[in-house]
Amino acid sequence: MTKTRKILIVEDHPIFRMGMCELINREKDLTVCGSAEDVPEAMALVESEKPDLIILDLSLKNSNGMTLIRDLSKYHKEIPVLVLSMHEESLHAERCLLAGAKGYLMKHETKDSVIKAIRRIFAGKKYISQRVMDSLLENFGKEQAVDPDSPVQTLTDRELEIFELIGKGFSSGQIAGRLNLSVKTISAHRERIKQKLGWKSGGELVRYAVLWLETEHLRQNKKSGMDL
Questions:
Q1: Is the pTM of this model over 0.70?
Q2: What CA–CA distance (Å, rounded) separates 55 from 12?
């Protein structure tokens, strides 16, 4: 008999989560063993359900999906992660793969692409779009090129996470609480972010972060509408 593979869904949007459950449970050899809205809940289900694969969104309730990818890479390397996100793949896909994810798929892709990605990962391979693959091959063996028109590309994973929280209106103290870091550490990150992006004041950084986040949301909305 064919083994039934267990999949854990980590997604904070109930309607999309329900659609993913329905899509996966249609497959005879796949079943959803649980769902979570944030990193702590997901890690608890990993321990109790022992999933064979995790489908993860980067934007989670009170947490960030990159944190879960890093935790899984450290404590549960045997569990592959497929990132299914609204975030632009040109900025996030390679970061996720380097952090340990086995695949990256945007939410506007078709339902067949989701199942194809799941099966490819179960076959021991990675799944990324042709566009990301072309970018990786282009930069293979040479130093990563930085798009001068996209200074956000120069930020580290942690800096990008903090930058996004700044754009959402969080103060340094609130960001420190969410990321379990000291306010001093967050302040140091903010200074480095300002330097990389070419801003002199905190106010300029906040305005740019808000504008960048709004632009990302507009881009995501244009690409939304995945048919489940």
A1: no
A2: 12
